[in-house]
Amino acid sequence: MTETSNQLISPTTIEFSNASASLSVAEAVVKMLEDVGVRQAFGVSGGAMASLWAALSNSQQLQVLHCRHEGGAAFAATEAHFASNRPVVVFTTTGPGITNALTGLLAARGEGAKVILVSASTSAPKRGRWGIQETSKYTVPSAGIFTPGVLFNDAIAIESAEQLPQISRRLAQGMAQPGGFVAHLNIPADIQSSSLDTPLPRLDLSYPWTTPSEETVSKSAQLLSEGSFAIWVGFGARGAEAEIRQLAEKTGAAVMCSPRGKGIFPEDHPQFVGVTGLGGHSSVMKYMQEQPPLRTLVLGTRLGEPTSFWSDAMVPSKGFVHVDIDPEVPGVAYSFAETFPIQSDVGVFLRALLKRDVASAQNPSTVLPHPQPETVDSGSQSPVRPEALMDAIQQVVVDRSDAVVLAESGNSFTWATHLLRFSKPRYRVSTGVGSMGHTVTGVVGAAPARNGKAVAITGDGAMLMNNEVSTAAKYQIPAVWIVLNDARYNMCDQGMAALGMQNVADAGIPQADFGAIARGMGADGIRVENESDLQAALEKAMVSSVPFVVDILIESTRAAPSQGRNQSLRSQEETISNSSDNQKSFPLV
User: Fold this and answer.
1) Alpha carbon distance 505, 493 (integer Å)
2) Partners of 63 in the β-ladder
3) pLDDT-based confidence at 204, cuts 50/70/90?
4) How would CATH label the architecture of 214-353?
5) According to CATH, what is the number of the domain 25-192?
């Protein structure tokens, strides 16, 4: 897994204190979770997991947040991990409790989070008898949900208290390793309340960082010294900000980043040439065409479609030096390109590389292209132009606060990625699963995990789909939602129009008053219809002591900046046009 949690921390040491024989299985599981560093749990209750819910709630170390939907709980847990760099728990009951959480857990796996699902299942004597929300092999597919695979790194059905010592070791090993790890502990209702007679082991586990050999580092330095090179920064490089900047300034290398890598290298730095992929900048392509590097040093990114569009124009003549913690990542996106693969934590590799002589990547007099801020004329237009909204968000939220900013899938993603500028890594988007509802619920996990403001930039479709405003109101979480309200799924609407199908499919939504809805749930909210009111509304939201929704009536005809993805489709059409399957996926158009 790439672009994962590779912060430069020392190897983790985990010690488990002996559990008293009086502990129930549920209480012992909670003790295990505490010992691996869990401090937050998000979920929804149910009768079959009553003992687990009680044990979680009785913990002196865990903050337990009872959410409105299991999918929202899983997204919140994912973002809580990235805000705190700790493993986070999702808890669910049987049946729909588990299945509702699966999309959020798939996102956790794809994003590289450390998340542990603790769920209930039907007790053995009652299985196959059609109990309420029965969870067994008769009602729920086992493969992939209760077994390791694409969804879970590890999945364990606990059928006996005697399993816990071995399970504690497996869980600790998974949480100690670098990168993401998503686990599932499933416990039948009757086992939760059974007694643990065997004490949990005392473990001292250290997970060594994967470090490159001296030969590998020397070879890398040699390859990068053969001519100009660029640095392509992904989400997996976070935690190595200082080393990336040092290497760039030492060599003069141009730096670009994936959408998830925004802010790891300051976007106002003269060597920053732009964001690649969805919502990215034309200055990147200008650089690749007019000042093409001989090689590109890739740090912690899969180079998948949202980052590269698989464009041949992004492949230097001598290919890539590709660093990732996952050995399967280098060479996957561009199998035809020459690639020197390096399995390593990005920071560990860069510190070793900086000890070597690496020739200058650019002529000192070379002027690199740079993303040009778009000038937005101030005015009192109504509805609000998305460009004007992003300009106000830049001034009030980005420049004048330290809030984490999360952008939802859809046009919110492209507007925010293209127009906002960050000097530090505090921007979050999902480019893998890219589920609607990730950000509007993820913000409820990010804010308490960092004990500060978190801001979601989202569309009205996602806000109606799966928000946790009520949860934020209950726990007084300092979350802010900025809703681009255009009464439609606008990425779909604009895509269908580009295909000439605007009168065929209806992407409209009855316009909702999200400020009023927020107030009805115990939060605060305001509606903005005119650009002249933007700054005051955002300022009010950012100083609010309660959750706050800013409902912005947006001009729906402004085309979102997804040009790069349009080009991606055109480049693929040469193959698609000769196929019987001519299906297109907007927003590829």
Assistant:
1) 8
2) 40
3) low
4) 3-Layer(aba) Sandwich (3.40)
5) 3.40.50.970
Cβ neighbors of 202 (< 8 A, separation 6 or more) are 15, 16, 17, 18
SS (H, E, C) 250-319: HHCCEEEECHHHECCECCCCCCEEEECCCCCCHHHHHHHHHCCCCEEEEECCCCCHHHHCCCHHHCCCCC
DSSP states of 539-561: HHHHH-SS-EEEEEEB-TTSPPS
In sequence order, which residues have a C-beta less than 8 Å from that of residue 62 and are 6 or more positions away?
30, 33, 34, 38, 39, 40, 41, 56, 89
Say how far apart CA 181 and CA 190 lie, in whole Å: 28
What's 238-266 look like in SS3?
CCCHHHHHHHHHHHCCEEEECHHHECCEC
CA angle 209, 213, 217 (to 5 degrees): 110
- Whether 66 and 471 have beta carbons less than 8 Å apart is answered as yes
Indicate the SS3 state at residue 524. Answer: strand
Q: Token pair of 103, please? A: 């999309």
Residue 269 has pLDDT above 80, yes or no: yes
Q: State whether residue 42 is helix, strand or coil.
A: strand
Average pLDDT in the 500-509 region?
78
Radius of gyration of the chain (CA): 25
Q: What CA–CA distances, in Å, run from 99 to 50, 120, 141, 182?
A: 18, 12, 10, 15
Q: What are phi and psi of 283, to 5 degrees?
A: -65, -25
- pLDDT, tens only, 34-65: 999 999 999 999 999 999 999 999 999 999 99
Confidence at residue 203, expressed as pLDDT on a 0 to 100 scale: 64
Interatomic CA distance for residues 119 and 140, integer angstroms: 13
From 1.10.3470.10, 3.40.30.10, 3.40.50.970, 1.10.287.1080, which CATH number describes the 386-563 domain?
3.40.50.970
Question: Peptide bond before 383: cis, by omega within 30 degrees of 0?
Answer: yes
Summarised one tens digit per residue, pLDDT across range 211-220 is: 899 999 999 9
Q: CA-to-CA distance for 547 and 317, rounded, in angstroms? A: 51
User: Residues 62, 30: contact at Cβ < 8 Å?
Assistant: yes
Lowest-pLDDT range, 234-243, 307-316, 455-464, 569-578? Answer: 569-578
Burial of 336 (0-12, 13-18, 19+ CB in 10 A): exposed
Domain spans of the chain, in order of start: 25-192, 214-353, 386-563
pTM (two decimals): 0.91
Q: Answer for the pair 457, 440: CB distance below 8 angstroms, yes or no.
A: no
